[in-house]
Design brief:
By secondary structure, the chain is mainly alpha-helical. Helix content is 68%, strand content 0%. The chain has helices at 6-29, 42-62, 74-94, 96-108, 116-137. The protein is flat, with a radius of gyration of 19 Å. The termini are far apart.
């Protein structure tokens, strides 16, 4: 047992750093506007500050509690990284529906106990939610399907 919960300390500080970086970048590169007429920088700054606050809420209490030995598992890191890169490569070539479905199903295999049926159901649910939110609800100009053949 360790004298501090280093896993939560590192994770919280990473979130804090990411939030501060996002807020600083958005605040310096986009107009903030006012509360009644929000500019394009208002939401990214607010989300960055919120992420930084959550990171501090995770890391500060971890300084005062004991933690378990940190065990690094490479499988989730590799699978999730490939999933994110795959989504970035697929969204413009095949559309958002197949990109979300395949990357969601692939990402579930970062865990060893997930069954294929459960992964397919999760992929279908996430795909439907993404389609309903971004294409139907927000009417974003993202092609649902954009097959190259």
């Amino acid at each position: 047992m360790l004298d501090r919960d280093y896993r939560d300390i590192v994770a919280g500080l990473g979130l804090t750093l990411a939030g501060v970086a996002a807020a600083a970048y958005a605040g310096s590169n986009y107009a903030m506007g006012t509360v009644s007429r929000m500019g394009p920088g208002m939401m990214p700054v607010a989300l960055g500050v919120t992420l930084a606050a959550f990171g501090l809420m995770i890391s500060v209490p971890a300084l005062f509690r004991k933690g378990d030995t940190v065990v690094l598992k490479p499988r989730p890191l590799v699978v999730m990284s490939i999933s994110i890169i795959g989504f970035a490569l697929m969204i413009e070539t095949v559309g958002i529906v197949p990109a979300v479905f395949f990357t969601t199903v692939f990402a579930t295999f970062s865990e060893t106990r997930v069954r294929l049926g459960a992964a397919l159901i999760l992929g279908a649910g996430m795909t439907f939610a993404t389609w309903a939110l971004f294409i139907v609800g927000l009417n974003l100009p993202i092609p649902a399907f954009d097959w190259p053949f």
